Amino acid sequence: MFQYLEDRSDIDRAHKKLSRTMRSAFAKTATRDIGYPGGRVKGAKVATNGQHWFWTDDCDADAFTQRRLNWFGVLSEHPGVSITVEVNTTYEGRNDLAAGFFARATETGLIYLLHSGRVGGGTEGVGKSSFLTWAVRKHYDVVDVVDSSGEVRSGLIVMPIEGQVAAKSAARYIDLVRGFKKAARTGEIQSPQFLKERREFEHYFSEGRGRRKGRRSSEIDYISRHGEIVDALQLWRSAKRLPRRCRIVKNVYIDLGVANGNDLVEIFEVKPSADRSSIYSAVGQLLVHGRKKPCRMTIVLPADESLAPDLADALSRLQIDEVRFELTKDSVSILDQ
To answer: Could you tell me the pTM of the whole model?
Structure first.
């Protein structure tokens, strides 16, 4: 899970690390005019690795959306270069008019630069939905980021803001956008196969959109209250009769289990949402750690979220049971089916 960076000082620190990382990895400097719709930055000193370039600066004071400019592109020997992708970020809070934003991975604390997927270019078919479909085709994941109000913004990870190979991720993203724009020019994104993939992506995206809104109470609280949910689950399961010679177990691999000796006979996996990625993750964990037969597998989900029909069918085929939890400000309840 990812949390949106909104505090001005946090964003400022993130951008400074981003800039240092890029200038360290793109250690050469080239002077180029950077062209963009409606204007040109003359004599910009871009950081480059000889193939790709990066440039950052503050926007004009009279710009409609105040943002820090983070421009990425492909170097040429010409005196002018074009922007492949803009991943501009706001100075504070959330403003979706800026395509870039920073987010922290809650499990690791690492901070990433993300891009909403909004790509311009003026070519027929170029747009956010088509680009995100292209990105998924190229093995990128669309991730959800929760802001302080509980609203969710989706995006693609451009790069971590620091690390020895961070800039390689940025270069790969530049090539991703470049490849998409080329596919738009050649008409590939108007092919029947690509249009089919886009329809499938749009269906998937719209399917989860309702569940992605206003999830702060379940998602954000889950991060800090996961142990509380597992404790409630343990009390709930302990109140029921255990099989003979069995005991409740927990370890780093499973949220809760019932074991006979060293063998699991029941396994529970708690997830913060009933969305597709959470279910995929839970199924994998249950099948890996509940691999010995017989072992009853159970997924524990929020009570106020419904499963997509195909996910419900899959759980049924795999003989994975459901248990629901209800999370309030003061308590956690495990609901009997």
So the answer is: 0.74
**What does DSSP say about strands 85-86 and 67-74: parallel, antiparallel, or unpaired?**
antiparallel
CATH of region 217-335: 3.40.1350
Residue 35 exposure: Cα atoms within 13 Å on the Cβ side:
9
| pLDDT tens for each residue of the chain, 337 residues long | 799 999 999 999 999 999 999 999 999 999 999 988 778 899 999 999 999 999 999 987 777 778 999 999 999 888 999 999 999 999 999 999 999 999 999 878 999 999 999 997 667 667 899 999 999 989 888 888 999 888 889 999 999 999 988 999 999 999 999 999 999 999 999 999 999 999 988 887 776 554 454 444 445 455 557 778 888 999 999 999 999 999 999 877 889 999 998 899 999 999 878 888 889 999 999 999 987 778 999 999 999 889 999 999 999 999 999 999 998 777 889 997 6
- What are the residue ranges spanned by the domains of the chain? 2-212, 217-335
Residue type at position 107? E
- Cα separation, 251 vs 257, in Å, equals 9
Q: Which residues, including other chains, have CB under 8 Å from residue 256's CB and lie 6 or more apart?
A: 230, 233, 234, 237, 248, 249, 250, 267, 268, 270
Comparing CA positions, the residue from 48, 29, 37, 33 lying closest to residue 79 is 33
